[in-house]
Design a protein that fits this description.
This protein has 339 residues and is α/β, with parallel strands linked by helices. The chain is built from ten helices and 15 strands. The chain has two domains: 119 residues, Rossmann fold, CATH 3.40.50; 175 residues, Dihydrodipicolinate Reductase, domain 2. The strands form two sheets. It has a nine-stranded mixed β-sheet. A six-stranded parallel β-sheet has the order 3-2-1-4-5-6, sandwiched between helices. It is globular, with a radius of gyration of 20 Å.
């Protein structure tokens, strides 16, 4: 690898891949997309053209390319583990879209393989780079809300068109459902900011008849410090994709909602009716997610160049999948499941 540039091979050309590509473009001369792979080689050729990149129809050929330093994986969930493992075993750095794998056992294997090979590996978890959550982290460290009592998260938007499309994998059994698809974001956040989930009880619903998996879920339980959490995940909401976070403590509360202006408000107690808008967090209902993914990609590139761990700890992604598994076990057996 050039000491001043990371050469990237893209595996997958779906919608999220466009944002990853934008992230590498934002890196300037520090990163270059040199290869693109898709099972449809014509699609790969079209996507590779702007970068004058090499084209592959088989990910194994891309991984074998000696001119690639970092493999970026944006394929359907079921392929994450297989492709990431093959790339790591070839000594490539890897950035894989969430979820890291379909099971926690697979996720841990990827982490251990990366450690054994001495390469950088992490999951594309943009949550860590959302401006509002970074500010929440700062306020929590400053003791703004006191002892945390209750945390609520909500992630919602519409996947209805893709679920109804026979060409999409979103509503298929191989995708497992919305807990694995978007719940990992909430569970990563709970690990990052609150020490993780201690136990969970969940309920799942399938609203759309075309879907083979859950498209609306509710879960609750305890965090590491004993505080209560509640989380809702839905992909049947006809509104712009959003995330909401509420943190309630002994001294006050923090409310984040990406569809509301101001996006982050700090309440200093029960009598603080108006609250204090945190103006350092911009109101960007259509850009907050895009910008956080750009930042996530840039951090991985810089981590490789600086020879440091990426800011996204893959063990937090591993924890998120452990919580997903516990949630599905809770749904199947109708009980609280401890981690």
């Amino acid at each position: 690898m050039s000491s001043k540039q990371v050469r990237v091979g893209m595996v997958g050309t779906g919608g999220i891949a466009y944002v990853h590509e934008a992230g590498y473009s934002e890196c300037g001369d520090l990163a270059q997309i040199v290869a693109v792979c898709d099972v449809d080689e014509q699609v790969a050729r079209e996507r590779a053209a702007p970068y004058e990149a090499r084209v592959y129809g088989d990910y194994r050929a891309l991984i074998a390319d000696a001119g690639i330093d970092l493999v970026d994986i944006t394929v359907p969930h079921r392929w994450h583990y297989e492709i990431a493992l093959a790339a790591l075993e070839q000594g490539k750095h890897v950035l894989v879209e969430k979820p890291m794998a379909m099971t926690s056992e697979q996720a841990l294997h990827l982490i251990q393989t990366a450690q054994a090979k001495g390469v950088k590996f992490t999951v594309a978890e943009n949550t860590h780079f959302v401006a509002a959550y970074r500010e929440v982290e700062r306020l929590l460290a400053a003791g703004a809300v006191g002892e945390i009592r209750f945390v609520r998260t909500y992630i919602a938007g519409s996947e209805v068109a893709r679920i109804k499309s026979e060409a999409s994998w979103i509503g298929s059994l191989e995708n497992k459902g919305v807990i694995l698809d978007s719940g990992v974001h909430s569970f990563y956040l709970m690990r990052w900011l609150f020490g993780g989930v201690r136990d969970i009880q969940a309920a799942a619903y399938r609203i759309l008849p075309e879907s083979q998996v859950d498209d609306n879920t509710i879960a609750f339980g305890h965090l590491a410090n004993g505080a209560v959490f509640e989380t809702t995940q839905s992909c049947i909401v006809e509104a712009p994709w959003t995330e909401r976070l509420e943190v309630h403590g002994s001294k006050g509360s923090l409310i984040v909602d990406h569809l509301v202006n101001p996006t982050l408000v700090y309440f200093k107690g029960a009598d603080d009716v108006e609250g204090t808008p945190i103006v350092s967090v911009p109101y960007e209902p259509l850009a907050w997610k895009y910008l956080s993914i750009i930042a996530e990609v840039r951090d991985v590139v810089q981590a490789i160049l600086d020879d440091r761990p990426p800011l996204i700890d893959p063990l937090y992604g591993y924890h998120a999948i452990q919580v997903v598994e516990a949630a599905y076990l809770s749904i199947a057996e109708g009980r609280v499941v401890s981690l």
